[in-house]
## 1
Amino acid sequence: MEEKNTSVRGFFEIIADIVVKNPHGYHYEMANNVEGLKKAIETLSSTKDVRYLYLAMHGNADGIVVHNRETLSAIVLRNILSKAYHQRNSLKGLYLGCCEFATSETVSKLFERDISPTWIAGYSRAVDWIESSALDMLFLSTLVNPLIDRKTQRIERVAGQLKNSAPGLVRDMGFGVFVRDAQRGVRDLFEEHDYFDEFDHAA
């Protein structure tokens, strides 16, 4: 059965309309092959007013899979982001809206070099489009909320809100939000075993 590529533009238009009063207040690029995807990432990650990069593609443990089944590996993605790091940009976060790609191993590879994103989020398991879209909406709408508590690091605040509002989705889809850690190299903000134990007992 051929995989369907359903667009995520709809929920970006909703979020942009609410936050900046303009449903077209975001950058959008399409890519049908690895070369096109590389160029799109290079363009967006080097654009000064782009803070968050969201990649909505098919994926697996080996990388991001484009329409013709070509795969963009973590190493290639890291090299693109590392190159953009040395240019003027405002990139703060990377959201991997792909199945199975956002593992601690992948993120460790991405953080091996200096890159602009201070956090990387995404799924380590195969996910349902509807369920993952619901979680994406929760994450992104919280992330760009201008009223978010400024006393806490924004990404930690987002992770905290998702822990409270969608703990089952976070756990079942293997969703993680990773940041650099001085001791371990990479830390997942959802790695709090007692939190999930409490959720299991309450279910």
## 2
Amino acid sequence: MFFLIFNQLMKMLLIMLLAFVCYKLKIVSQEGNKSISNLLLMIVNPCIIIRAYQVDYDAHLVKGLLISFGLAFAAHIIAIVIVRLLVPAKNNPDYFLDRFGAIYSNCGFIGIPLVYSVLGNEGVFYLTAYMATFNLFFWTHGLSLMENGFSLKQLKEGLLSPMIVSTLAAICLFFARLHIPSTILDSISYVADTNTPLAMMVAGFSVAQADLRKVFTNLRLYWVSFLKLLIVPMAVTLFLSLARIDYTLAYTTLIAAACPSSAAMTMMAIRYNKNYKYTSEIFSFTTMLSIVTIPIVTFFAGFLIK
């Protein structure tokens, strides 16, 4: 698993570097970045999910999906507890952003291409459980961090996101044992296959906008990154090994938890008038470091998860 993930991350890094150069050369603007992000969120990722569920009904898959929901819930609780203990609020006006960045993963843009490359459609099938759980926590606990409050209206908005809607639609088709006509499914697959290059280009564009000198000299970013990319994933690894979880289910959950900080954190910070520049620095720094840390985490996980 270590070599598969390392090889895939190197490919993804090259795409991200290409995007970085394109943005610096002004081949792509911020508007272009926003358009590609929207395309990924609204079209490409839903296509991936629908394709993943276009398989024959199997009780084994259903059982795995239910277990995946439980694992995703446990992974988020583990992250919340650890981060609350290790990121104090005292003398840190942006403590809630540090906590947010250390808890919530970029399990869509980064997680999907990575899981698909090493675990295939079955891995993405189980990853949808993590992504649905992520949205539930993001719009409840995450919102309470960002705004120090919570409302059912905002939860409704989160639960009506394209990822949740497409997941529910795909699950309905799966349980109803309805298969999309091959011509249409092939078209959906063509669109889904653009996910990896587009997702890594968005990551590269975002890193290109960061003040890298400022990023690399901010010591708080190192602590947040250490928590997000090493401490939390290793704690999740320990939990998965003790629970003796199936290999595919375990690695799907682990990869999702080991991904860098969520890109949606910056969008939420802008919406609620928080320090969005700092959140973009967290996203950029953890994205760069994850190229190294995800292989490290999976290497050690190989000794515990069999």
